[in-house]
Amino acid sequence: MKSTNVRFWDVRRNKSSKTVSYEVRWIVGGKSKSRTRRTKALAESFLSDLRQAARRGEAFDVETGLPTSMLPKEVPVTWYELARAYIKAKWPSAAGETRKSTLDALATVTPVLVSTTRGAPDATLLRRALLHYGLNPPRWEIPVPAEEAVALKWLADRSLLVADLAEADVIRSALNTIAVTMAGRPAAATTVARKRAVFYNALKYAVKERKLLEANPIDQVDWKAPEKTDQVDRSVVANPAQVRQLLAFVTYVGPLGGRGTRLRAMYACMYYGGLRPSEATGLRRQDCELPDLCVCVGDCICELPVSAWGRLTLTKSRPGPGRLYTDSGQTHDDKGLKRRPVGEKRVVPIPPELVRILIWHLGEFGTADDGRLFHTSTGGTVSASAVWRFWRSARVLGFSPEQEASLLVGRPYDLRHACATLLLNAGVPPKEVARRLGHSVEVLWKVYAGCLDGDEERINRMIEKALAA
């Protein structure tokens, strides 16, 4: 902020200093300012410069107290430099998945914010260079391969100044870019919303922390993102018979007794327990309370129940953003539960069907050294890509061509949606459903309101009653 409301005082001896010095005092916009100089002549010279600037009608900066002509000359900052500064500031406190989504968004808009596209490197190469090196703080100190180095040099030399982003056309071109995939097809509404939020926050950083822009230019642009819905599409929700069918067919994926069979219990946890994939990945033996069940053939001699409920006590999750985004350099992060304080637990009762599946799984495959239930044959963490790949293969084997081509339980995460829908339609109180899933009741209704059965029939009866009156 600047002001022309300036008053000056005469130079005086600085009494607070043991060595001889002289103090220049003045007021800008009601705020007192002062500077000290070693000699009275230097102090008088500095005061003279200030008075001359005021006589010329220059505005004074309220924070520094200096006229415009005496402010330090700022070196122009490019968008690429700002993006690097922004990600460096956010990196230490961000989770791996957040780092990944932030880099993804910045790597999408940064190649567009250039003065010219002449001589531009291949788009895939430039994106890889940004994700692996240019925008990834922990990798700034390692040597960059020649091809990627050339691509980043081209970008750095042509990146627009941050001041240029005040132009509406520049911002609009960046927003249009996040609305499409690299293949040129319309991007999903959730993807557009996520990338826009990152871009907006980077520009907010330029405004509030770096003082490089007067206002966030996105607010000045008339641009509408695709409408996003948080509600689950009913067409993805499978019924119990369909889920059992896929859990059976996943065991046929891969070699007999191999990866598909290893993952069956993991998928079962997502459906019968409503676990997120990252929570299932982090599930340990000590988190499972599994009752002893009768295994007698013929007449029972053990007096154990044939079926009984168990309990999972969830404390950890293991999201897998990838090695580029974790502090450990491993594919997965060790974290607490999503959006919950560190150390908070979530107790999930599990039905007898899942109890039997988990008991069989532990007997067949045991645990990893750290107690994890789901692991590779060498004890490693099951990758997110493998969880997706085996599920897709199970759908090909277990579904008809029409079902396989549909959205029906197309992703492993849809098993969790099917669990929530089953519980709500079974009449379980929404508060209890939300607790088991790790949601708030508000989020539960927002996401699953479209998956409830019976409302249409009930409403139709109410209308018929009104019409008959």
TrEMBL record:
Which terms in the Gene Ontology molecular function aspect does this entry carry? Answer: DNA binding
List, alphabetically, the PROSITE patterns matched.
Answer: TYR_RECOMBINASE
- Pfam family for this entry, one: Phage_integrase
Q: Where is the composition biased (Basic and acidic residues)?
A: 330-340
Q: Which residues form the Tyr recombinase domain?
A: 227-464
- Which controlled-vocabulary keywords does the entry list? DNA recombination
Q: Name one GO biological process term.
A: DNA recombination
Which intervals of the chain are annotated as region Disordered? 321-340
* Annotated protein name in UniProt: Site-specific recombinase XerD
Q: What is the lineage of its organism?
A: Bacteria, Bacillati, Actinomycetota, Actinomycetes, Streptosporangiales
